Inverse folding.
């Protein structure tokens, strides 16, 4: 883990396309994800904007609660839980906003709040950067025409 305080920590998906000349220090945190060292979301956003790229901040926070005390293992479990959500496949970075350590009936647990971020060159949030393979939607008229064509040719 890059710092003692996990709030503000950024994680970037491996093989994410970054602006040329942008050099950031990262370390492996989870399989397929790297933790950014010595740089928070604001500083990284400024560097990306200087390169004429965009660093989107997506509204709507995600929460995960894991048993244990604040530390690298609890953060890994919480981040794994957040990244398991289907929406995580669409974005290439995530930022930890807050961590809270609490106790319930003598059992420690950690609540982690995060937001998705996305790095890309174009100004509009591009759906072509989804990391999932989704077949393009086919209009209903095309499906109906294909079914009708098959019905006519078979008779």
């Amino acid at each position: 883990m890059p710092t003692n305080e996990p709030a503000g920590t950024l994680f970037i998906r491996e093989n994410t396309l970054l602006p040329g000349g942008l050099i950031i220090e990262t370390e492996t945190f989870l399989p397929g994800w790297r933790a950014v060292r010595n740089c928070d979301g604001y500083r990284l956003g400024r560097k990306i904007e200087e390169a004429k790229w965009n660093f989107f901040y997506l509204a709507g926070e995600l929460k995960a609660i894991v048993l244990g005390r604040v530390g690298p293992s609890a953060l890994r479990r919480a981040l794994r839980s957040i990244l398991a959500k289907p929406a995580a496949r669409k974005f290439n970075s995530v930022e930890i906003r807050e961590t809270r350590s609490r106790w319930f009936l003598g059992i420690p647990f950690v609540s982690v709040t995060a937001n998705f971020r996305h790095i890309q060159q174009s100004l509009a949030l591009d759906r072509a950067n989804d990391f999932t393979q989704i077949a393009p939607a086919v209009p209903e008229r095309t499906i109906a025409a294909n079914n009708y064509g098959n019905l006519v040719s078979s008779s």
Notes: The first helix runs from residue 41 to 50.
